[in-house]
Amino acid sequence: MTCGCVDGPRGQSVDRRCFFTCCTESCPQISASLARLQKELADESDVRLVSLTVDPTNDTPQKLDQYAKTYQAVAERWNIPARE
User: pLDDT tens string for the chain (84 positions)?
Assistant: First the structure.
């Protein structure tokens, strides 16, 4: 899986980042940066953020939902998809 900035549908810019909820080193820093970016680009309708778990076995939908709440991810802007 490749993570990073890509062109999305309808000319949107999409920034995809990989993480896992029990990561204690780089993941919180990356997610904090995405939270800041979400706020800074609030008026840019063509920017989307996506955080993809690399540990879907342990990152349950409940854990991903809590992770999204921790970083105040706005669903329309920052997608943290749950994998079943």
Answer: 445 544 445 566 788 888 999 999 999 999 999 999 999 999 988 888 999 999 999 999 999 999 999 999 999 899 998 754
DSSP 19: E
Question: Amino acid identity of 41?
Answer: L
Instruction: Tell whether pTM > 0.70.
Output: yes
How far is Cα 77 from Cα 12, in angstroms, rounded to an integer? Answer: 11
- CA dist 19 and 35 (Å) reads 14
Q: What is the DSSP letter of 25?
A: S
Residues recorded for the chain: 84
* CATH no., domain 14-79: 3.40.30.10
